[in-house]
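Margin note from the TA: students keep mixing up input and output lines. Inputs are the sequences; the output is the structure of the whole complex. Example:
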Amino acid sequence: MKFNEMLQKSWDKNGSLLCVGLDPAPEKFPEKFSNFDRPIFYFCKEIIDATADLVCAYKPQIAYFSSCSAEEDLIDLIDYIHTRYPGIPVILDAKRGDIGSTAMHYARESFERFQADCVTLSPYMGKDSIDPYLQYPDKGEFILCRTSNKGGDDFQMLDVGGEPLYMKVARKVDEWNVNKQMGLVIGATYPAEIKAVREIAPDLTFLVPGVGAQGGDIEAVVKTGINGYRTGLVINSSRAILYASSGSDFAEAARKEAKRTRDAINFARF
Amino acid sequence: MKFNEMLQKSWDKNGSLLCVGLDPAPEKFPEKFSNFDRPIFYFCKEIIDATADLVCAYKPQIAYFSSCSAEEDLIDLIDYIHTRYPGIPVILDAKRGDIGSTAMHYARESFERFQADCVTLSPYMGKDSIDPYLQYPDKGEFILCRTSNKGGDDFQMLDVGGEPLYMKVARKVDEWNVNKQMGLVIGATYPAEIKAVREIAPDLTFLVPGVGAQGGDIEAVVKTGINGYRTGLVINSSRAILYASSGSDFAEAARKEAKRTRDAINFARF
């Protein structure tokens, strides 16, 4: 099944636009995991089991795995989601970007080794750095457009012929998206910008990080970013859900926070 | 020792500005490696042994390792270079770029897990996506500026207030480089652009991919990119050296091609 169809079904099935980001930092795990052989795998597994009926997707951030030599945990977690909760897509947050011959290897990493359904990519090296991923017709790609970090302004806000660079990126990705595989990453912190991009790209899905720990306003994100079908958004929260409690009730607290976030999104949505 | 000092010594010691890129693609290896338990490690080791007196640096491309689940080979190769040929820096070509909390994990991946001396990064997310790497004072960072692939034009050539985006990136990196840890990646295919960047950033080191298989003109690169000390360049060739022969003489052929390239650089340099 194509990624965009998988996502559509997932939005519908759980009635949710919430994505839970899997950024496992062992130093933040509850005490009990210090005795575990594979703390990253088991911590994430409990988070997944506690939230799978509340989300439209999961987004593991590869840096958290690779910095800990935990590639096997990442493989097993994605396999676990696909097997135990079929239909929930996994977006591998990798922000890769390189020339075609190298991008082919990165695509293999994301889609064959890790079996992700979708990957995040950087636009800086242009279309031919994205093409190798499109060779996997069932997979999706979210391209960085506007990021919510302070440094996001350094280049993304530069004026290019009367509009900021990120708008040029949005226009290009919309133009490139003939196979309906692509979407955009747009941070939650600037709703006016989400609105501006939605106006020029009504059909693209936006992956929106930055609600939760990063402080983005859910209502403003939904009101400005939603498409004509009241979907078109994958709203990500990582730390606020994963580390809602540092005690033994962490999974229950994660569920509660995920439910709160999903409901806040739906309240703004309908 | 700081990366820029290590590189300076390495330029001097071997009288070379040549960097050999380690892009190990097992399907291109000579026949004998099909029987090896760790073909990637042993192929690269033979390349390194055949070229270590001719280079200023090695640049493993991480995608070629991660697509093959060969992280252990990468760790062991970098350790082999550091142990057997001390003083030759290893630049991990990773082109990472993410928010600070994630960049910290990528920095850990590059500098602690893999023990690279330097890493390549993408500028799109701005200064705070680079800061975590600067926390390792002995390490270096090359930031993507102008890339030699066709898609490099898509965004890097956009006009920003009278000059292309890549010039803005060059100016920003030059401004950020207070600790002398940073350099720029500039493709070999557009010498006029190398010249323009050298004029505004006389002190930055340029990592220049694109000679060899990608067809960049060595003489033009050296004449336009060299600094006042007749250094300031790390000129990378990967495929043209690694796969100079597909027979059992591959290491000898790699040495010959590396020597030819180093000499062509030095001919233009002096």
